[in-house]
Amino acid sequence: DERSPSFTVVPQKQFYHCFGCGVHGSALKFVMEYEGISFPDAIEQLAAQVGMQVPRENGRAAEDDRLAPLYAVMAEATQYFREELAGSERGRAYFERRQVSAEMIERYALGYAPDRWDGLLQKLGRTPERVKVLAAAGLLSQRDNGHSYDKFRDRVMFPIHDRRGRSIAFGGRILDQGEPKYLNSPETALFHKGRELYGLWQARQSAQKLKRLLVVEGYMDVVALAQHGVEEAVATLGTATTREHAELLFRNAEDVVFCFDGDRAGRQAAWRALESTLPRLKDGRQAYFLFLPDGEDPDTLVRKEGAEGFRARMQQSMPLSDY
């Protein structure tokens, strides 16, 4: 909010200082604070900007070599599902019915898994080695006879991105009635659902500094809120709020608003979020709880009230201490 320059960099000392707020440190610390990422991720990001390879200890180098094919095949699968959506009237009709714009489909890289047992397998599993990588990435299931088939079929697909914007897992939603309504990728070497938040990558792209994060329960809630201008929403991945979630949330924003249904299940989920969040509160961090009216979710509510109405509800949310 200042009107006069107060941020100073001293290149000779590899040092910055802000006279306005008193924050100072190295380039690495700046990237960690500004981007809300860990020390290793800051190293990777800065090295990539100047075209350097980060030296590895033998164990870490072996791990990177092992994970590289998984990242590559997840990127290919994301592109495959996007192409299938573009060519699928059934998949596009679902998003049209839910009033999801082309901009949101692009922003969240939404896709469609065709109603076939081997669509992805035929497209990406060209060799036995590739089939093994697809299975390790959580994209295939296996019959009792050992034959593999596509895990996701006839579902709209929501890629889950890591803090560097790479696809690491998927959530697939059924188009009609049936169970399970949502099918998530299993845990893999890339994906641990208790440590990831859907939409965090996109939320961080929407603002240089996030003042708050809104935690909701569903993928479509995140997409609908963003489409109506509430771009700071993220979702847990079908699991209760964990300690890792709480730490990740507060690394990216000072204020966190947990949004739940007002029913008994919603209040139980809120209490679990409180238990994970409370030990991580310190000066400058605040947590709030927003309970929605019966029969409403963020998707339906933001369509009725718009961003302004939904933000007004956020402003009236209950501080953790009161709850």
Tally of extended strands? 14
Low-confidence stretches: none
C-alpha Rg (nearest Å):
21 Å
Q: What's the shape?
A: globular
Biggest sheet character: 5 strands, mixed
Distance between the termini: 32 Å
Strand arrangement in the largest pleated sheet: 11-10-12-13-14
| Structure annotation, total helices | 12
- The chain-level mean pLDDT equals 91
Helix content: 40-55%
Strand content: 15-25%
Sequence of secondary-structure elements: EEEHHHHHEHHEEEEEHEHEHEHEHE
In terms of topology, how is this protein built?
Elements: E1 7-10, E2 15-18, E3 24-25, H1 27-35, H2 39-49, H3 58-86, H4 89-97, H5 102-107, E4 111-113, H6 119-124, H7 128-136, E5 140-142, E6 148-150, E7 155-161, E8 167-174, E9 182-184, H8 200-206, E10 212-216, H9 219-227, E11 233-235, H10 243-252, E12 255-261, H11 264-277, E13 286-292, H12 298-315, E14 318-319
Parallel strand pairs: 10-11, 10-12, 12-13
Antiparallel strand pairs: 1-2, 2-3, 4-7, 5-6, 7-8, 8-9, 13-14
Helix pairs in contact: 1-2, 9-12
Would you kindly provide a written description of the structure presented here, covering whatever features stand out?
The protein has 323 residues and is α+β, with helices and mostly antiparallel strands. A hairpin with a 5-residue loop joins β2 and β3. The longest helix is centred in the first third of the chain and has 29 residues. The model has no long low-confidence stretch (mean pLDDT 91).
Structure keywords:
globular; 323 residues; alpha+beta
